[in-house]
Design a protein that fits this description.
InterPro entries: DUF5062, DUF5062_sf. It comes from Thalassotalea castellviae. This is DUF5062 family protein. It is a single chain. By secondary structure, this protein is mostly helical. It has a domain of 41 residues: Four Helix Bundle (Hemerythrin (Met), subunit A), CATH 1.20.120. It is 55% helix and 0% strand. It is built from 3 helices and no strands. The model has no long low-confidence stretch (mean pLDDT 92).
């Protein structure tokens, strides 16, 4: 798995946008006490369920891979020339 440029910032943006998406889908949202790993896993599973990202193989389903998938997802959603894609 090749690390993306600005992957940490992309992941942060993916969580922010993903949470808004989840709320629009009827999810009550995350509380301030939810751990980042829980947010990542929840958003990943929601996006897989909605067929917005391809699922990871079950033997390769770890936190780092889920973070990477979310970063890839948001990089494809951002407009061309966005500051995080440079």
């Amino acid at each position: 798995m090749k690390k993306l440029k600005n992957e940490a910032a992309l992941l942060k943006k993916a969580i922010e946008i993903g949470e808004k998406y989840a709320i629009n889908r009827g999810y009550k949202g995350f509380s301030a006490t939810n751990a980042a790993k829980d947010k990542v896993e929840s958003l990943y599973r929601l996006l897989v369920n909605d067929k917005m990202v391809h699922p990871l193989p079950t033997d390769n389903e770890d936190l780092q891979s889920m973070k990477h998938k979310l970063a890839i997802w948001i990089s494809k959603q951002l407009p061309e020339g966005h500051e995080l894609l440079k």
